[in-house]
């Protein structure tokens, strides 16, 4: 368990956020930690529970993967960009 800083941006928002996530967080949890800064503020919440999709380097990653697994697969480094959008 270690804190890992990323720049998170929610699709449709113009404000990126520096977010501390945990290496044991799932990508769903990472998405929620990023989304809380945008959804309901500058990004409207859609009706129903759409869920989130996470992209790193333009590639979508599985929501059930832990950040530690994603770090090993993608080579994500601290302070790199993570994009979150609504699951379609």
How would you describe the oligomerization state of the chains in this entry? single chain
CATH architecture: Roll
Number of domains: 1
What is the residue-averaged pLDDT?
95
Helical proportion, percent range: 10-25%
Q: Strand pairing plus helix content: what structural class? A: alpha+beta
- Could you name the CATH class? Alpha Beta
Question: What is the CATH homology-level superfamily?
Answer: TmoB-like
Radius of gyration: 12 Å
Q: Strand tally, please?
A: 5
Written as H for each helix and E for each strand, in order along the chain, the element string is EEHEEHE
The strands making up the biggest β-sheet line up spatially as: 2-1-5-3-4
Question: What is the fold-level CATH name, i.e. the topology?
Answer: Ubiquitin-like (UB roll)
Summed up, the helix count is: 2
Distance between the ends? 31 Å
Shape: globular
Strand content: 25-35%
Question: What does this protein look like?
Answer:
The chain is α+β, with helices and mostly antiparallel strands and 88 residues long. The protein has helices at residues 27-35, 67-74; strands at residues 3-10, 17-22, 52-56, 59-61, 81-86. It has a single domain (3-86), classed as Ubiquitin-like (UB roll) (Roll), CATH 3.10.20.270. It is built from two helices and five strands. A five-stranded mixed beta sheet has the order 2-1-5-3-4, covered by helices on one side. The model has no long low-confidence stretch (mean pLDDT 95).
